[in-house]
Amino acid sequence: DTVFKLKYCWCRYKPEVGDIVVGRVIEVAPKRWRIDINFSQDAVLMLSSMNLPDGIQRRRTAVDELNMRSIFEENDVVCAEVRGFHHDGLQLQARSQKYGKLERGQLLSIPPYLVKRRKQHFHYIEEYGIDLILGCNGFIWVGEHAEPKDDMVIDEQANKSDQILKPSKYSMTLEEQERAYTPLETRQNVCRTANAIRVLSTLGFSVTIEIIMDTVTMSMSLKEIHEMLGSEFCVLVAEREAERRSSAKKKG
């Protein structure tokens, strides 16, 4: 039991200001969202620290607070940045278009120490049409590439509304419905990349964009994507990493 507790502590995230993190919304509270980021306590994203859909820098209003669930709601996966520590806990901020809600993908959880802090944690893999976010907290997002949305200017009538209505799938045109679904090839690429991360995590290897894509390339020889999670492929990845480290020592 003691060993388990020690291992659990080692796997917990130790935040630093400026860290890119991925998390899941667990509560919508007054003027704030509470988010699970694999820390010893929930993180807080204040409404005032959020980039609103209209893109206008202004004071938050009562209407904004009423519309909080139209931005994030429970179980939504979001990306944000560690802002700092305050009396009410760890504070996040999402004042840029690169932050916000993540959709059409998979959320993975690996030990945080396998994700090294680097200059770039956002990756667009154009060849596969996917986005990859390596959260410093060990939560990793792999999903369909999302183009940055243009700032929307909401008219006066919309501002006066107490609720932002989301379009129903029944009111969407056929073309809109087709755009709402992720193509099969992209879904396969998401699964292949996610499985590569699972394999690397199982082997205890540091997860970087280079080794992830190398593992994805190796998997192309397999007939089925799920075979990546078998012991044979894990051995191949381990041998490949051993060779890489050996050649790196010789060069050094």
TrEMBL record:
> What is a GO molecular function of this protein?
RNA binding
Location(s) in or outside the cell: Nucleus
User: Which family does this protein fall into?
Assistant: Belongs to the RRP4 family.
Q: Can the keyword Nucleus be found in this entry's annotation? A: yes
Q: What phylogenetic lineage does the species belong to?
A: Eukaryota, Viridiplantae, Streptophyta, Embryophyta, Tracheophyta
Q: Which Pfam families does the entry mention?
A: KH_6, S1_RRP4
Q: Which InterPro entries match?
A: Exosome_RNA_bind1/RRP40/RRP4 (IPR026699), KH_dom_type_1 (IPR004088), KH_dom_type_1_sf (IPR036612), NA-bd_OB-fold (IPR012340), S1_domain (IPR003029), S1_RRP4 (IPR048565)
Any one of the GO BP annotations: U4 snRNA 3'-end processing
| Species assigned in the record | Punica granatum (Pomegranate)
Q: Which GO terms describe its cellular component?
A: cytoplasmic exosome (RNase complex); nuclear exosome (RNase complex)
* Name listed for the protein in its UniProt record: S1 motif domain-containing protein
Q: What is its main location?
A: nucleus
Provide the alphabetized UniProt keywords: Exosome, Nucleus, RNA-binding, rRNA processing
Q: Where would I find the S1 motif domain in this sequence?
A: 16-95
Keyword RNA-binding belongs to the record: yes
